[in-house]
Amino acid sequence: MSEPLRFDPELLHRQANKLLDHVETHRQDHIGHDADLTELASRWPGVVGSAMENLRAGWDQQHEAIRKQVGDHATWILDATAKVVGADDGNAGRFGGPGSGS
After folding, report:
1. What is the pLDDT of residue 37?
2. CA angle 15, 69, 79 (to 5 degrees)
3. Helix (H) and strand (E) counts for the chain?
4. What is the C-alpha separation between 87 and 89, in angstroms, rounded?
5. How far apart are alpha carbons 37 and 54 in whole angstroms?
6. pLDDT at 102 exceeding the cut of 50
7. How far apart are CA 51 and CA 4, in angstroms?
8. Which parts of 1-102 are beta strand (E)?
9. How far apart are CA 55 and CA 62, in angstroms?
10. What is the pLDDT of residues 15-63, one digit of tens each?
């Protein structure tokens, strides 16, 4: 006999919210780095400054993509948890207890 599916919606919500918190912390941490690179690029004329700005822009795009993916994953966890809880609540009482045969 297989084990019943068990999940803790509160734990899933906490973990998803932790992911969202990490996304925001990551964003805030990198604001300073972007500003530093922008300032350095402005001090170097020509090819060096342009290369630094290109580096900053590339990192910014990569960081934004990572933040979006992690944020989307956290949102998916929250949405899926809500759907499972809703289905579980909607089905409560429709079926007999475990092993009741009904």
Report:
1. 86
2. 50
3. 2, 0
4. 5
5. 10
6. no
7. 57
8. none
9. 11
10. 999 999 999 999 998 888 888 888 988 998 899 999 999 999 999 999 9
Does 9-86 carry CATH code 3.30.1450?
no
Sequence-separated (6 or more) residues with CB below 8 Å from residue 37: 52, 53, 55, 56, 59
**What is 23-51 written as a DSSP string?**
HHHHHHHHHHHHHHHHHHHHHS-THHHHH
State the pLDDT at residue 90: 81
Which amino acid is it at 93? G
Could you give the angle at which helices 9-43 and 47-91 cross, rounded to 10 degrees? 170
Going from N- to C-terminal start, the domains of the chain cover 9-86
**Whether pTM exceeds 0.85:** no
**Tokens matching residue 88:** 């579980």
Locate tokens 């019943």: which residue?
4
